[in-house]
From TrEMBL:
Protein name: Transglutaminase-like cysteine peptidase
Pfam families: Peptidase_C93 (PF06035)
UniProt cross-references to InterPro entries, sorted A to Z: Transglutaminase-like_Cys_pept (IPR010319)
Domain of life: Bacteria
Cited Gene3D superfamilies: 3.10.620.30
Length: 193
């Protein structure tokens, strides 16, 4: 209920409160193998255009776009495991049939936001350990207000430090190489499922 109230309040907010950006240590990390397969099938979704901005200038309109896309995808896509959906342990794909798991939600959010003109380079697929220690994928949006997380577990967009996640790695914004986030733990425990 609290996440829903936060999500509703976010629609009314002109801008989110500023937050810190996560520190990316720059060490290379092995990409998720299902990501590599996804990129082989959808090269346009994985291409890095270094002419795009690596950070989005946050405006009330951009915030509204983020909130609306996050809520729409969370509402429209039905959760299903990759094993039940595809018969494999891990497959990243766009949920064209409105079914998917965590990374599928985030890939669709990024696609829709990029179609609205936001730079894909500032929207990074990110692997975390969730509050139960399980692997989970979120979309980190790097902005001038800080780094925010779009997640299928809540329709509230949270600053990265308020998710109660351990940040493992994310796709790089210079090339297709992934980078380590060094297992940075978010400093608070405010996230609710």
């Amino acid at each position: 209920m609290m996440a829903m109230l936060s999500a509703n309040a976010q629609v009314m907010a002109s801008l989110p409160s500023p937050t810190e950006s996560i520190e990316v240590n720059g060490r290379k990390a092995k990409p998720v193998s299902a990501w590599v397969d996804f990129c082989n099938r959808h090269a346009e979704e994985c291409a890095v255009d270094t002419n795009e901005a690596a950070v989005i200038t946050m405006t009330p309109n951009i915030w509204k776009q983020l909130v609306q896309v996050n809520r729409k995808v969370n509402r429209d896509v039905k959760p299903v495991t990759d094993m039940d959906h595809w018969g494999v342990a891990d497959k990243w794909d766009l949920p064209t049939d409105n079914k998917g798991d965590c990374e599928d939600y985030q890939l669709l959010k990024r696609k829709l936001l990029a179609e609205q003109g936001l730079p894909r380079r500032a929207m990074r697929m990110t692997v975390v350990l969730d509050e139960e220690g399980e692997g989970h994928a979120v979309l980190m949006v790097r902005t001038t207000q800080g780094d925010y997380i779009l997640d299928n577990k809540t329709s509230a967009i949270l600053p990265w430090g308020e998710t109660n996640y351990v940040y493992v790695k994310q796709e790089g914004n210079i090339d297709q190489q992934w980078v380590s986030l060094g297992g940075v733990t978010s400093p608070t425990t405010t996230a609710k499922n």
